[in-house]
Design brief:
The chain is of the alpha+beta class. It contains 28 helices and 50 strands. Among the domains are: about 250 residues, no CATH class; about 120 residues, paz domain, CATH 2.170.260.10; about 130 residues, Rossmann fold (3-Layer(aba) Sandwich); about 260 residues, Ribonuclease H-like superfamily/Ribonuclease H (Nucleotidyltransferase, domain 5). The strands form 12 sheets. A 13-stranded mixed beta sheet has the order 46-45-12-30-47-48-49-44-43-40-41-42-50, sandwiched between helices. Strands 4-3-2-5-6 form a 5-stranded mixed beta sheet, with helices on one face. Strands 19-20-21-13-29 form a 5-stranded antiparallel beta sheet. The longest helix is centred in the N-terminal third of the chain and has 21 residues. The radius of gyration is 36 Å and the shape is globular. GO terms for molecular function: RNA binding. Pfam families: ArgoL2, DDE_Tnp_IS1595, PAZ, Piwi. Belongs to the argonaute family.
């Protein structure tokens, strides 16, 4: 028998229902509670609202009102020790209607006194439909981001246009969660529940929400909820009865009950017991329907965004709520979870929540390729399992002259701690120059009156050994634990770097890793650039490559500040004491800059006499300035930024041993590269010499903890050399397909490019820094004449002769020239740059790619002049870039041949690449996030999307791509328009991620990519995604040792390693895809974070190796796959765009000691980099 119960639209009492139906009052109450849960479950199981092109509105409302008989008030006597009202302890603990009366004299005296308690928040989602509007309400404890975002995420489809007010919780709906978020001011938007209004306009759709709609929802609230909506009877309990006034039939069922949004995440999923649902006669002694015991909800507490359920037997939850944290107190008549059903932890879309886990290695490793053995710069280590290390926090502060205290800098911290440790009878300890002090003994009894703080930080020492135990499955390299031993290894290497006088300092790197063979120590020689210790005038002359002693133009001053000077420390010693300053800007010359003359008497300077900087130095220091016409520099000290000092440039010196963090010029890069190129044999010898000199096994620090290093030789590991792909071109004879074979990572371009196009009109422009000579004009003309002939051999044809022009290197003139050529319908403009700087190159790219939309190709005059008699070889690489920008295909690689499964070969693959490029001094300018995606069936043409990411002022940006949802959505749409379908397999190569950011990248970027797919694919099958991290910045190197010839050489192109030195359980591998031209080859580490496609080790390694041959810029295998390389190139060249953006120059410099570990995603702002529509989807970046 099925029971039926009519719930009228208007509220009636349970007594009336009991009399009408003929059952007891308790039965009516129990059925009413049960039906509310059924309606709530119906809401939870309802399909999501919205969709692409659909509009929903969201808002939150706080219910307030009078409350009688102290319900929801604090009584006068219920206060905490501080006399402050406490919302949790001060609630009147009434649990039944009988307790609402004035039962005691105290209650009578306190009636209507005390602080009124707020009623709950109601969050609502509204969508217009053909029949009116669909409205959903949710009872929430607060309206913060952690509470509201999961509700929106569960009930609204990503991609929906969401209108809301400007409440901060909705800030990142568009950038992080993929909604088209629009805001409107509160006065126009109104409150869905609280504000009475004639009508509310639905944006874009043009429909209205009338007062009649809200009367339906709002009128019962006033009669039903006002007397019952106390803290012990949540408003949420009454929504189903009000919102669903239809006939509800309750058959025999087992259903899943509602999820309550109380702490930012879904609480639990619990099941109702089976029941017949019969409506029997009135009987007070029987359970007529669901019993109160079965349908009473267990008391629960919100803990850090989750709920811990208290068991029926009174046992306490496993996690104790924070002091002062709000608890959720549901109604006594709610539904409880059966004891046998454990709470299920729900996943929240809030970042950093471990939504996804790292994938494990699917097999024991690959087997394809020819096997080889070689050395790697890892050394096996042995660590005692009983090792216990205690970690302490140390704060070292230094007192300023004014009595204030400031944090000590790195060198000062080390000196202070070194002296204290040497002077005191400390147990065995070591220090990391920061906040961490390590010891194998307890230091809690050591207390000294130094101005330092020692605080015990970590006693959970088992985690340290867990990382080094291969039997433990530790997925992420624990930085704190590894830092313990790495810091110990560095105790004797504080001052081993020596500057060679040319601005390059040499040293060595060491780090510990958990590998398949156990714990290893990785050692490599490194270098970094330093500034010369030289006079500021000499430094600027060298930097600008010109004589500045007669003055610096104002424009050059601003460029110097922006590019180099704001990050440099300067020193002065003209007073007899060395003082350190930062530079703020330039002032007037020493002759022109004046200030009031100081008079050493009590009367002061009554005449107002002034003196110049030149006169002051002559009178004060008996020093005649050599360059009085040079501008002064305005200096300041970080401790007192408000006080400025104007000093002559010639008395300032660049501080010694100062690391160069600004980008190098082209000439500097060439000199540094030449200096730092190290042949494999030389690198091998240097590393072994470091190991021998270091004498790890004689180190007193390592002996104290029982750690040993096998330092006799490097580890010998097995590897494999993968077979290269076949590359298809078109024959010069009959236009048939021909194959070029790859040998040692390179191949020859002896035939035509695979797909080309004809160019109807083009131009060649010579741009010179000075008036070009006749010889230079002749060389440019000769090049323009031979250019069509040579590249015609590769299949690119020109219908007309070039338009030849010659212009000075002035941005406005170049702009006018491009506008003129654009009007003449030129498709391509070839620029020959003669002695011009990078600024002119950036101007050309900005004008062509962003302002006018015309394809530009730049080449260097000196290279043309040098290769004028052998232009065929020179133009071979240039023609490949040229064809790619025009939309052609150079060489074709069958990527599916890398796959062994037949089902995968028939799939439609799309390849993504992504990178975030920071400037060397990344606080001066925004980071550039770039995503590229293949757009054709051959996976050779890639379109790009870029955004600027602005961190808060003075902070370093994060590596996360904030706007990945929109960027990937655009690229998927472009793929669909080009191929007629969306891909069903996506392979994503992510460059530039540190291992400590893996989880953050997974939680944010993989989720954003899935949201984009969900918004486009709708109810169709979702594509399977594989997500890899490409890591170039590591220090593992491989060496091939030939015993017969006693020589050491590089490994071959295609060398792959997935044993011995890789992670014991995670899916990673090393691949050296390119042939090193000079120096030591640098393998790339790939880490598969997420794999729905289900690649084997052989498949993903072979596919990655094939993609390293797909780069259109050359006929060589590059070090990383083409998608990742393109993303890097596009992000790098995007710095040349928005050429006149004033925001970049307005960002101030920064202090070295700022710590940016607490920056959040919400603090980063983004700006889309727009290109001209005709350039947007081309390979403009190659």
């Amino acid at each position: 028998m099925k029971g039926k119960l009519d719930i009228p639209e208007k509220d009636i009492s349970s007594k009336t229902i009991s009399w009408t139906v003929g059952c007891s009052g308790s039965t009516v109450v129990d059925w009413s509670n049960f039906l509310r849960e059924v309606c709530t479950e119906k809401l939870n199981m309802a399909p999501q609202m919205g969709g692409i092109g659909e509009v929903v509105q969201i808002d939150e409302s706080l219910f307030r009102g009078k409350r009688k008989y102290n319900r929801g008030r604090l009584l006068l006597g219920n206060q905490n020790n501080n006399g402050n009202n406490n919302a949790t302890n001060g609630l009147v603990p009434y649990a039944s209607s009988s307790e609402d009366s004035d039962g005691t004299q105290q209650q009578t005296n306190n009636r209507n006194y005390g602080r009124r308690m707020d009623r709950p928040w109601i969050f609502d989602i509204v969508q217009p439909t053909e029949d009116g509007h669909e409205v959903r309400f949710f009872h929430v404890q607060c309206r913060d981001r952690q509470t509201l975002i999961p509700v929106i995420w569960k009930h609204v489809v990503p991609g929906t246009t969401v209108w809301s007010d400007e409440w901060a919780a909705y800030k990142n709906l568009q950038t992080q969660y993929g909604y088209d978020h629009q805001t409107i001011i509160e006065a126009i938007f109104g409150r869905f529940l609280c504000i009475q209004t004639e009508n509310i306009l639905m944006p874009k759709s043009g429909s209205f929400i009338t007062i009649k709609t809200w009367t339906f929802c709002d009128a019962p609230f006033k009669t039903i909820i006002a007397p019952l909506g106390t803290a012990s009877n949540p408003l949420f309990e009454h929504f189903p009865r009000t919102m669903v006034p239809s006939l509800v039939s309750v058959p025999e069922m087992e259903t899943t009950f509602s999820r309550q949004y109380t702490g930012g995440e879904d609480t639990m999923m619990s099941q109702a017991p089976r029941g017949r649902g019969r409506l029997l006669g009135r009987s007070s002694g029987q359970n007529n329907g669901p019993s109160n015991q079965l349908y009473r909800r267990a008391q629960s507490a919100a803990v850090g965004g989750k709920k811990i359920i208290q068991e029926e037997n009174g046992t306490q939850p496993s996690i104790i709520p924070k002091i002062g944290e709000k608890r959720y107190s549901p109604s006594r008549s709610s539904v409880t979870r059966p004891k046998s059903c454990r709470p299920i932890e729900a996943r929240s879309p809030v970042p950093d929540s471990k939504i996804y886990t790292l994938v494990l290695r699917p097999d024991s490793g690959g087997s394809a390729g020819r096997k080889v053995d070689f050395h790697t710069n890892h050394f096996k280590c042995a660590i005692p399992k009983e090792l216990i290390v205690k970690q302490y926090d140390v704060d070292v502060v230094i007192q300023n002259r004014d009595g204030t205290w400031r944090p000590a800098k790195k060198d000062d911290r080390f000196l202070v701690m070194k002296k204290i440790i040497e002077r005191e009878k400390f147990p065995f300890v070591w220090y990391d120059d920061g906040k961490n002090l390590y010891s194998t003994e307890d230091l809690s009894g050591f207390q000294k009156q130094y101005e330092m703080k020692v605080k015990h930080k970590n006693t959970d020492n088992e985690k340290i050994w867990d990382f080094f135990d291969p039997t433990k499955n530790i997925s992420i390299r624990p930085r704190d634990s590894v830092r313990v031993l790495e810091t110990l290894l560095k105790q004797h290497t504080r001052s081993t770097m020596v500057c060679d006088g040319r601005g390059i300092g040499y040293g060595f790197y060491q780090a510990m890793f958990l590998t398949k063979v156990g714990v290893t120590l990785n050692i490599n020689n490194t270098f970094t650039c330093f500034y010369h210790s030289m006079n500021l005038v000499d430094f600027l002359c060298d930097y600008l490559q010109t004589d500045i002693t007669r003055g610096i133009p104002e424009r050059e001053q601003q460029l110097l500040l922006k590019k180099v000077l704001k990050s440099i420390w300067l020193e002065t010693n003209h007073t007899g004491q060395v003082r350190k300053y930062r530079i703020r800007g330039f002032g007037l010359s020493s002759n022109r800059h004046t200030f009031p003359k100081q008079v050493e008497n009590d009367q002061g300077n009554e005449d107002g006499d002034r003196t110049s900087v030149t006169e002051y130095f002559r009178e004060k220091y008996d020093r005649k300035l050599r360059y009085p016409d040079l501008p002064t520099v305005e200096l300041y000290t970080p401790g007192n930024k408000s006080l400025s000092h104007h000093l002559p440039m010639e008395v300032c010196t660049i501080q010694e041993w100062q690391r160069s963090i600004k980008p190098l010029t082209a000439d500097q890069r060439a000199r540094v590269t030449k200096k730092t190129v190290v042949k494999p044999e030389q690198r091998y010898d240097t590393i072994m010499r470091v190991v021998y000199d270091r004498k790890f096994n004689d180190d007193t620090y390592l002996k104290q903890i029982g750690m040993t290093v096998e330092d006799k030789d490097m580890i010998i590991i097995p590897g494999r050399i993968l077979p290269p792909p076949e590359i298809w071109y078109k024959s010069n004879r009959d236009n048939s397909d021909v194959i070029e074979r790859v040998s040692i990572g390179k191949w020859n371009l002896r035939n035509r490019l695979h797909t080309t196009r004809e160019i109807k009109k083009w131009a060649c422009v010579l741009v010179s820094s000075r008036e070009p000579s006749n010889r230079e004009i002749d060389v440019a003309s000769q090049f323009a004449a031979r250019f069509p002939e040579i590249i015609g051999r590769f299949g690119i044809y020109f219908s007309s002769a070039p338009i030849q022009k010659s212009d000075p290197a002035v941005p406005n003139i170049i702009l006018r020239r491009l506008e003129e050529l654009k009007q003449e319908k030129c498709e391509v403009v070839l620029f020959i740059l003669n002695g011009v700087g990078e600024d002119i190159y950036k101007c050309i790219k900005y004008f062509g790619n962003q302002k006018l939309g015309i394809i530009t190709q730049c080449t260097d005059y000196s290279a043309i002049q040098k290769n004028i008699m052998k232009l065929d070889m020179y133009l071979q690489n240039l023609v490949q870039k040229f064809n790619a920008k025009l939309g052609g295909v150079n060489g074709l690689i069958s990527l599916t041949r890398a796959l062994t499964s037949a089902s995968k070969k028939d799939d439609v693959f799309m390849f993504f690449g992504a990178d975030v490029t920071h400037t060397t001094c990344s606080r001066d300018r925004p980071s550039i996030a770039c995503v590229v995606g293949s757009r054709d069936s051959t996976s050779t043409q890639y379109a790009s999307r870029m955004t600027e990411q602005y961190p808060p002022k003075g902070r370093i940006s994060l590596e996360i791509i904030m706007d990945l949802f929109n960027m990937s959505t655009d690229l998927l749409k472009l793929f669909a328009s080009s191929n007629g379908c969306l891909p069903n397999k996506i392979v994503f190569y992510r460059d530039g991620v540190d291992d400590g950011s893996y989880q953050k990248v997974m939680d944010n970027e993989i989720r954003a990519l899935k949201n984009a797919c969900k918004a486009l694919y709708l109810d169709n099958p979702q594509p399977k995604i594989t997500f890899l991290v490409v890591k170039k910045r590591h220090n593992t190197r491989f060496f091939v040792y030939d015993q017969h010839q006693n020589t050491t050489s590089n490994v071959q192109a295609g060398t792959v390693v997935d044993t011995h030195i890789v992670h014991p359980s995670l899916f990673d591998f090393y691949l050296n895809s390119h042939a090193a031209i000079m120096g030591t080859s640098h393998p790339v580490l790939y880490h598969v974070l997420y794999d729905e496609i289900g690649f084997t080790s052989d498949e993903i390694q072979q596919l990655t190796y094939y993609l390293c041959h797909a780069d259109v810029r050359c006929t060589k295998a590059v070090s990383i796959p083409a998608p990742a390389h393109y993303a890097h190139l596009a992000a790098y060249h995007s710095r040349d765009l928005d050429y006149q953006d004033d925001r970049r120059s307005s960002i101030n410099g920064y202090d070295d000691d700022i710590i940016d570990s607490n920056i959040t995603l919400e603090e980063v702002q983004t700006k889309v980099i727009q290109l001209d529509p005709s350039i947007q989807d081309t390979m403009w970046y190659v």
